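Request: Show me your protein:
***
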Amino acid sequence: MRHTPMLASYGLRRARGRLALLLFALVLAACGQPAATPSAAPTPAPATAPTAAAAATTDDYAQIIEASKSESGLLLYSNMSEQNFSGIREGFKAKYPWIAVESIDLTAFEAAERYNAEAASNARTADMIIGSAIDVWPALIEAGALVDYTSPEEGNLPDYGKLGPGIYTVATDPVGIIWNKALVTEPLTSFAAIAELVAANPEMYKGKLTTYDIETNSAGFAINWSWLAAKGEAGWETIEALGASAPVLQSSAGNMIDSVISGERLIGYFLISAPVQARFPEAEPVLGFALPSDGVPVMTRAMAITSQASSPNSAKLLLDYILSAEGQIAATNGGLTAYRSDVVESAAIHLEKLTSGISPDNLIITRLDPAAADQATKDEFLARWKAAVGKP
């Protein structure tokens, strides 16, 4: 597995595993972040917290803005598609037109490996990393690869808005089910309902389901890890029932959506909502989408400024902009899901709107989990998952 050398390169040797996990858990505790993967529903932000706009009136923030004008643009290593990033890019450009933003599409594992190699040789590297890997971020923290920056927007965020030291949430995308409405006539409301269809018509659904390959997709790993941590053995039984269909495993959401729209596959499950939202309204006649009543994973897209950033001030401005009310609204223009409580009414796509009919107990927020960074624990989890879905 390609992630193994990356983790080794960051010093997560098995002999130091227990000490590293203990140190990371203590760091998270100091930041007020719970180590448990599941989470309750979003909590409202304090009404009196300072905003980036207010901070911009201070000398310190004015200095950050002025210093950014002499920097050489921003370089991002990100797993967000250009379509999903488009709203943020356009809004940030309008606010800070002198900052050019280049984004290189990399998985979280690729971003970490590339950053590590470039930083070691003092080459130009990412100013900011954006990704969904709950197992890679702990390695970056341990390596000292991230800046423990405190955003002036932090007080406006729910608890899951900050995932670790210097690591903030870009957007919160609920995870659901898609289906071809021309071929699956009844709406699908739960993962258990899909399992029942597979059990009742095994030949009809053989090879007709699709989901993330969690060995190659960090978001897929985070989703499955978090959902199964919340559901326990009952969750594993559902995964095994779905796995009886021999699902087609994909490394990207786009491939899954295309295959369901075309009718090549009938159903996709554990799919992040952002790429699905970006297909509407054009795909609405054929593409069904629902959040499962038996547990909705909420994917937190994380971001952090790197310790080797060539444009640290520009990176602070982008991070603060994304967390601001203005930035959260702009993010929805690219299909991302806003989560600040004070933009519920003005954001086109908001977590509270999307999950309004879901019990708070059924929202499972993905968080950094030190257990997921332990290679032995991760290998055991992957082996069981592969057996459940029939992957060699």
Q: What stands out?
A: The first helix runs from residue 3 to 9. The domain at 175-298+379-389 is CATH 3.40.190.10 (D-Maltodextrin-Binding Protein; domain 2). The longest strand covers residues 167-180.
